[in-house]
Amino acid sequence: MTAASSKPGTRTKMGYYAAPEDSERIRAAFIAARNAGRPYRSLSDFQLEAILEKVVQLETELNGGRPFEGAPAHSLSPGRPME
């Protein structure tokens, strides 16, 4: 498991859109993991761990295993409009 690197209470909100069927699968996986005794306190913790695992994979593949340098929120374009 990849632990979050920030202290409790110091997190910033991030969001994404998902298709309804993907949202349902994500929630079901979270519930199954909690029922199996995994120590997720919240759906947010569950999602953060999954995202950080992907970040570590990309750091390994694309950045020589070194952590990516931080990028401020305003460095991203707002994305395409929702259809």
What does this protein look like?
- The chain is mainly alpha-helical.
- Helix content is 43%, strand content 0%.
- It is built from 2 helices and no strands.
- The longest helix is centred in the middle third of the chain and has 20 residues, at 43-62.
- The protein is globular.
Number of E-type strands: 0
Distance between the termini: 35 Å
- Range of strand content: under 5%
Task: Give me the Rg, rounded.
Answer: 15 Å
Secondary-structure element sequence?
HH
If helices are DSSP runs of H or I spanning 4 or more residues, what is the number of helices? 2
> What would you call the shape?
globular
Major sheet, described briefly? none
Task: Give the overall average pLDDT.
Answer: 88
| Structural classification | mainly alpha
Classify the helix fraction into a percent range.
40-55%
Unreliable stretches: none
List the defining traits of the structure above.
single chain; 83 residues; 43% helix
Short description:
The protein has helices spanning 20-35, 43-62. The protein is mainly α.
List the helices and strands and how they pair.
Layout: H1 20-35, H2 43-62
